[in-house]
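2024-03-11 09:14:02 INFO receiving multi-entity request
2024-03-11 09:14:02 INFO entity count = two
2024-03-11 09:14:03 INFO echoing inputs for audit
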Amino acid sequence: MPKESSRREFLKRSAKGAAVGGATAVTVPTAVAENSPATLKTANTTKTNSICPYCAVGCSVVVHTIGDKSRNVKPAIVHIEGDPDSPINRGTLCSKGASLEEFVQSDRRLTTVQHRAAGSREWKRMSWAEAVPKMARFIKDSRDKGFEAEDPQGRTVNRLKNIAMIGGCTDTNEINYLLSKFRFGLGMVAYENQSRL
Amino acid sequence: MIVAKLIDTTLCIGCKACEVACQEWNDQEYTMGTFDGSYQTKPELEANFWNLIKFNEFEKDGATSWLMSKYQCMHCADAGCLAACPAPGAIVPLANGTIDFVHENCIGCGYCITGCPFDVPRLNATTKKAYKCTLCSDRTAVGLEPACIKTCPTNCLNFGERDELLHLAETRAGELKADGFADAGVYNPQGVGGTNVLYVLKHASEPEKYGLPKDPVIPWTVSLWKGPMKWMGTLMFWGTVFGAFFHFVIYGPQDPEKHGHPEDPSDKS
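2024-03-11 09:21:47 INFO inference complete, emitting structure
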């Protein structure tokens, strides 16, 4: 083997080795990066105010959704957080309220009417179209059976004692207003709610 | 402007809203653990669980109470993870004092875990990258507070300019002292140049009771490895390269036909 070629080869090899070695041994100093607003999850969302459905405090929440203005996109909730403008919670939420996004998106969440017929053990899915007339029928029958216009002393009472209603602070003001109206209209006296917590 | 978190441990009620808010904002799935007789969500931080409320049991005069503490990245001014990290750009100190992990550049060596005096970063076994609290750098970048701070219902967590929060912390510690907690004080360890997560503690002389190290420093192995050992290694590498090169230039290659190997039996020359 000629001496000349082996020397050249050696020089080549050492140059390569130095390049690789240099790359590993010299560390580029880490620069102090500017804080840049790259991708904020809630940057382009529609903000809808709502109420936390858990306890009687009734914290206000902001629901961030994307895609709900688009025609061909299924809207999605990306974040739910406390409403900073609310005097009730001033933007804060407890651990349950903070998990609302998962509550809404849970695959175990009930989205249809569940009906358990008298004497049955099974819950069955029912459509609203079927459920609403059924409930109306039950209410009407019970009211016809149990309505008292006068008490035994002959005083006008117009009361209904065989139906009770459960309302709640977890509903919005509007829903509770309608519930109360409905209750007074029927003469229902047994009423339970959580708002006195 | 250096931003900071202030955790007034005396106001924490252990509701864990900050834990949930952290998980929600960072879109992290909760991994079920086992119940081990504590109110704590998990015994330790995890790669997908960056913020843990510790229920430290404290006994005094036969009565047990909890010393609450929030366990997450401390965003040290002199960060051990940053000192230990060998991957350029994987751990980035932001202009506002946040120590952020850039996972694209992380090589998953886990040296940040060794370098952290608070034992905070966690390695994800699947992605082989290290994860920890980012101080919600995406939120702070647009002027929002981190998710945990926003949700805290008892005002135990505060966020703002570091100097102002230090002042607030001292004020609060003073109030506690006036209320009879003589040992109250601020946790702002100087061994790591001060942290951007400040605590107000009732027992400031014994932070171990809160699960916080008393005098955290960057492990000496990290300083040795990233300091003298690195210089020596570089010197030895280049010394060898240049030594071999100049030896070749000056003396040329070894010629087996000329010199031969006396101990080689096949060499008959």
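2024-03-11 09:21:48 INFO post-check: Strands of chain A lie at 46-51, 60-66, 76-82, 113-115, 124-126, 147-150, 156-166, 188-192.
2024-03-11 09:21:48 INFO post-check: Chain A has a mean pLDDT of 82.
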